Amino acid sequence: YAKTHGRNSYKLYTADLNVQSSEFMALANSLHRALDRHEIRVFYQPLVSLQTGKIVGAEALARWQHPDLGIIMPNKFIPVAEQTGLILRLSEQILFEVCEQMRIWESMGLDYGWIAVNLSGQHFQPDNNLLEIVAKVLKETGIDPLHLELELTEGIIMQNVEFTIALLSDLQDLGVKVAIDDFGTGYSSLSYLKHFPVNALKIDRCFIQDVTSDRHDATICLAIIDLAHSLALEVIAEGVETQEQFQFLKDHGCDHMQGYLFSQPLPTAEFAKMLSDGKSL
Ligand code: C2E
Ligand code: MG
Ligand code: MG
Ligand code: MG
């Protein structure tokens, strides 16, 4: 396989990765080139205050602008990046691009609040120098760390609790904020939660979807909001699509939300325009 695809291709042995689809193999081979050519683009989805209805920040979401296949979504290529180890390079690129972009917005006088960047489990392995990478990107771009938030899932923390807690605490000492993504879908133990050095919980979209019609989902959302606030954490609802969901979350004291009701993830220029237009709900 590797022979027919030239020198830059990865040697993906089916014995190691089980039997991968040919689509996976094709993406794995072109992802390396995609990183060299900066084909991975950052889209920004506004984060909105439930109290004011105004933009308070954004989540950076990766999109692969593939020359032949068009836009490829993260659910397709993030797993490929993880299994090939390219996720570290990819995230470093995204982190750098986001911080450079913040600088540009600052020079335009745009108040973008804070930008959240997703991280993968591999960043939280001892040899991968996440702290040094984040510190370097902040230093090289001159961004105030309080404008940057890092998102990770419960599963990542639970893989290596002691190490991750120490690393998150170092990141907080740098001044960056940390959020637990997809909260409620993982397996973090509540007894650990009080020790996690984090600033925010993001309620997973699966609890928001039927929050106004399913009493169990409503109860879970209220419990997460309560839990977050009693631990002095902010709480953000993901995947808000209707005015009813928005009102429910607002009435129950959730802090922020993101979702198609306000906006889909946008290319840089469109997000900047939304900021300068001062869109609000
Ligand atoms: P996530 O971090 O939980 O991001 C939220 C996802 O929900 C995004 O999907 C977003 O487009 C989608 N979403 C937001 N509002 C709504 C809504 O109202 N309705 C619906 N149906 N969906 C909504 P996306 O961009 O496809 O990303 C999927 C996942 O891929 C992300 O979930 C994240 O886990 C991962 N991902 C994306 N970008 C990156 C990245 O740069 N690095 C890493 N490591 N992972 C990333
Ligand atoms: Mg996220
Ligand atoms: Mg999420
Ligand atoms: Mg996710």
Automatic annotation (TrEMBL):
Residues 24-279 form the EAL domain. This is EAL domain-containing protein. The chain holds residues 293 to 573 of 573 of the full protein.
